[in-house]
Structures are given as C-alpha cells and as structure tokens.
Amino acid sequence: MHYITEEDVERNLGVKETVEILEEAFLSYSSGTSFYRPRERIIFDETVFNTMPGVFQHRNLAGLKTYIANRNGARFVVIIFDTRKSELLAVIEANKLGQIRTGALPAMVTRRMVKGKNQGFCVIGSGYQAETQLEAMASVFSLDSVSVYSRTFSNAKKFAERMQKKIGLEVKAHESVSAALRDATIINTITDSNNSIFSRKDLGEEYHVNLCGGNIPNRREAAEDVLVDSDLIVVEDMEQAMMESGEIISLTKNHPGKKCVELGDFMKMEKGELNGKRKTVFKSMGIGLEDVAAGYALMKNMGLLK
Fold it and tell me: Are 172 and 147 spatial neighbours (Cβ–Cβ below 8 Å)?
C-alpha cells in the first residue's frame, strides 16, 4: 500500500492528462463498465463527514473520496483498491487532486460540447479552485481572450497577474460581471455564492456555462433564466443534483418541462445531436468516479501500477 502526499500529487498529476482520463472514465460509465454513487453526508456537531464512492472497472479500480469539514477546515483523502486482488493500493492526500479534477471535468465536457478551438473565456471566482478551471480550459482551447471577475476586485487582479505568468496568456480582471462576460463564449463559475452572480441578459446569443461552485442547495451562481433559455443542460447525476444544486432544484420545481441530461447519457450523444444547441449549461458537483480516475492517472505516472 502506498501513501501519496500532496507534494507527490503536485509533481505527478497534470491537468491535461486528467481531462483525458476523465473522458475515458465517463465513456466507460456510459457503456456500463464503471459506476458511482452520489455523495453521502453525515452531519454532527457542526461537522460534515462526506463519502463519494466510485468504481473505475475499466481500469480494475474501486475507491472513494472521503473528507471531513468543520470550522477548523477540511481534510480530503482518496482511497483506492485493486478490484481483481481485493488489495488496498493507495491512500492519497487529495486537496490538490481535487483541485485538478474539478478544473479538468468542465474542460472535458466543454470540449465535447463547443465547436471551434478559438473561444473567449471568463472565470467567475478567483480562489484556489479557479486556477485549474482556467488552466484546464487553456489546455483544450485556443483562448482568444481570458477574463476574471471576483466580488473583491483586488483578488481578481492578483489572480490575473498570477495566472498570466502561469499560462502565458493575457488575463484581464474586471470590476463588473457584465464587463467580464462581454467577450466570453465559455464561462466557468467556481464560487460559494448564495445569490446569482449573473443572469441571461449578461450573456450573448451563444454561450456555454460551467457551474462548478456550490454543492449545497442554498447556493446559486447563475440566475434561473440562464438555464431556462438554454438549449441543453447537463448534470453529472440527477439524483445528486436534486440534493445539492440550488439551480437544478429551483429549475425542476419552477419549470418541470425543462429536462436535464445526465453526463453518462451526454457522453453517448453523437455530434449531430448537438447541432443547433448554441446555449448550453453543465452543472458540476463532483462524484467519486472522477477522483478514482484521477488517482489512476497519478499512480500510473508514479510507476505504481503494473
């Protein structure tokens, strides 16, 4: 059994390869050779204990992400087993791994959703998780423009300066969300906002929005009219969305005729089925299959898998 530290993850797992392994994982899920269950939470004494199981049977792995969170912070761990030998392979410190796969997943979905390599990109949010949202998107698209909006403008400026050096593209910080969205065709949100940050009027006639922040029902990143006016809405898992996503819960209640497509079914869609879908949304909440798949890529890079 291997114990893998945050430093090991930093050295051995890249964003672009995580995009590729997540695509493989969800294609295997859509064909019935990988599995997962939605996140389960146990709440006690102002503490939340989370478990997120997944089986990457395509690669003979099973495991889960588990973490505990309270006022003292959060600690993330991924545990991975070999399904052939019933052997514990690794315990992985997973703060960095979670950051990487959280950025890689919307990039994977967007690449399958959006036509054309040249895009304008906006990230809403400027914290730790926002870094890989931008890094992953820059790895799969040729970004003509990059903008960032944060509720605190000084944080947006610092993010722009930091990421400009990291990815080698100009990143512009904006004081208003409407200005940040002006040239964007792809928008990623990664915030803990309880109130909608933007609405349909802030977007053009063609857009793809990745809602990657809130995973508790009282949080909102986009106004309901963004989803109502969209041609296609994709969620990782509908059961989990109905427990965790404020946007999807509200949409389903107020507009029951507006249907969402689960990610496994989206992966089966032919390119022709996406023709004419110029306004699209992906709601990401995080599931354990993603962490097991990222763990596979990490262990392979470290030479720990035969």
Answer: yes
